[in-house]
Amino acid sequence: MNLHQALTVLPGVGPKSAEKFRKLGIETLEDLLLYFPFRYEDFKVKNVLDLEDGEKAVISGQVVSPANVQYYGYKRNRLRFTIKQGEVALAVNFFNQPYLADKVELGGTLAIFGKWDKTKASLTGMKILAQVEEDLQPIYHLTQGVSQASLVKLIKLAFDQGLDLLLEENLPQVLRERYQLMPRSQAARAMHFPQDLAQYRQALRRLKFEELLYFQLQLQLLKAENRDFKKGLALDWQEEALEARKAALPFKLTSAQERSLGEILQDMKSGLHMNRLLQGDVGSGKTVVAGLAMYAVHTAGYQAALMVPTEILAEQHFESLSQLFPDLRLGLLRGSMKAAEKKDLLSRVESGQVDFIIGTHALIQEGVNYHRLGLVIIDEQHRFGVEQRRILRQKGENPDVLMMTATPIPRTLAITAFGDMDVSIIDQLPAGRKPIVTRWIKHEQLPLVLDWLDQQLQVGAQVYFISPLIEESEALDLRNAVALEQELAAHFGVRAQVALLHGKMKAEEKDKIMQDFKDKKVQILVSTTVIEVGVNVPNARVMVIMDADRFGLSQLHQLRGRVGRGDQQSYAVLVANPKTESGQKRMKIMTETTDGFLLAEEDLKMRGSGEIFGTRQSGLPEFQVADIVEDYPIVEEARKVASQIVADPSWRQDSNWSLLAEHLTEKDYLD
Ligand code: ADP
Ligand code: MG
């Protein structure tokens, strides 16, 4: 056996179930071994006297009253009995699981997982445990057709067959010794079947280090390539023409825009390969800076491409660049183009009759050939990882690359997360902007907000509603959003058209709904958080975020940034009843400042509280087990080690590091 074999080599896995596992990203045996739980349930037996009200825990004790099942109505029923743990007697209730009565034997001992109700001194049972269960039960992300039980069974099977022993070590001995890291196969086993918390933590530490070290190595290798003079373009742009363009703008650039543009221009002029990240809060004026950089490239006799995540954003940029540069030849590449139209555009691009080309990922993927491509700008970079950056530089003449992001990331973190790139920051908004007014309300005050929304709708405002995020389950996430849409539609009736946008929709569907919203055919747009950011609908002036305390500050700031794009006053309403101090603090800070960088710094400080969901959409790279914010100390250590390793030009020949080189080559990160 080898671990690259498909899952179907396991007994009991046919093509049909393999298809289901594929949806979880599990295709090979190795994928299965490395498909880690995202959390654990603690099944260690607790003392009932130590439990807090509402806590879920395992209680064990002796059954001291016979099981009694009561029925109500058509199907509902309750199984009741009493157990004694030490000297404490407590009532146990199971709802609608009458068959469990068979397991309840007077005088016998049971371990029950349930929820403790302190005032009633009773446990609402969720599960009767077999006598010898592990203390920590892994919980996996699931998909339609794959249950916890079936996943656990398959993983157990793989480990029982000893497949974990085939997992190859990918960290050199010296590093494992230096940091006391357990072997890879041992770590994988401990993730699925931890003996105790301490062992799990050690396993996690090892896997995080592994993941972050490889990430840092990739970054450092890219960076080293960027420093190679022979490999970059030296663009000789025309100073005077550029100055004239700037002077013709309807406004004066802010000093932060000037500084960033200067940094970009300098990079482009030098023979170094530019790989720069342009950061600026929503509305800080990145587009103009990008446009001027593109124009500079044009004066040097090269083409420039602007790549964005969605078609609707592509259109938006096409429009604003057409306004800024009416005399240039702009092309918009769209997926929905007719074949003839597309062919015509592509041939004009190839023969150099197009100066700026704007589009989605198709710009670099399909057979798009450029006449002389000098600059590629990538907007909202968060789905453009280090891997894509590497592919891009292998295209054509190795054009300069500028990435733009509206997510404010503190500089220190940006350097670790995007170590191969230089960073420019527009940390200043153009004068005269109206800050978004942010209010925090409790759920019970929602009716007041709905009344106020009616007034807003009457004066023509449009509204975003963000439905609560349920990280564990996409299905629940969606159900929540649908429910919210229906409630709002029922509430507003003919007074507003309500539409729903969610992550499971096809790109065209999403674009269609966004277009309807832009065209004011829809007044209230309900969406899950997994949808695109960056779309500009100036008339959308109100953003309501449900269960706002589930989000980190940066994410809330991103969401809020979708309003406040027109001249009218905009509002953000955070609906939340936070249970923790940190949750309350976050809500309060949001109402007090609109400074994205300040919020990002606060976000960093408050991370690790464990109650904020993932780094998704925060603009930072995502990992399987590591979190670039929470694991910052490991990130830093990995960065140090990686740069020490690659600092020696002949590191690949060093027997200490050959293992790393091998794995990087296998993944195509090295030639
Ligand atoms: P973002 O950084 O979010 O992409 P945009 O580039 O879309 O921001 O700019 C937002 C708005 O601000 C645009 O309407 C743009 O014309 C305007 N703008 C950009 N720079 C300035 C400036 N220096 N002074 C005044 N308005 C500006
Ligand atoms: Mg923008």
From TrEMBL:
Superkingdom classification of source: Bacteria
Helicase C-terminal domain sequence ranges: 452-605
Record flagged with keyword Methyltransferase: no
UniProt xrefs under Gene3D superfamilies: 5' to 3' exonuclease, C-terminal subdomain (1.10.150.20), Nucleic acid-binding proteins (2.40.50.140), P-loop containing nucleotide triphosphate hydrolases (3.40.50.300)
Residues annotated as transmembrane: none
Root EC class: isomerase
Catalytic reactions of this protein: ATP + H2O = ADP + phosphate + H(+); Couples ATP hydrolysis with the unwinding of duplex DNA by translocating in the 3'-5' direction
Alphabetically ordered keywords of this record: ATP-binding, DNA damage, DNA recombination, DNA repair, DNA-binding, Helicase, Hydrolase, Isomerase, Nucleotide-binding
Domain Helicase ATP-binding: 267-426
InterPro entries associated with the record: ATP-dep_DNA_helicase_RecG, DEAD/DEAH_box_helicase_dom, Helicase_ATP-bd, Helicase_C-like, NA-bd_OB-fold, P-loop_NTPase, RecG/Mfd, RecG_dom3_C
A Gene Ontology molecular function term of the record: helicase activity
EC number: 5.6.2.4
Entry-linked PANTHER family: ATP-DEPENDENT DNA HELICASE HOMOLOG RECG, CHLOROPLASTIC
UniProt function note: Plays a critical role in recombination and DNA repair. Helps process Holliday junction intermediates to mature products by catalyzing branch migration. Has replication fork regression activity, unwinds stalled or blocked replication forks to make a HJ that can be resolved. Has a DNA unwinding activity characteristic of a DNA helicase with 3'-5' polarity.
Stated family: Belongs to the helicase family. RecG subfamily.
Protein name: ATP-dependent DNA helicase RecG
Species per Swiss-Prot/TrEMBL record: Streptococcus oricebi
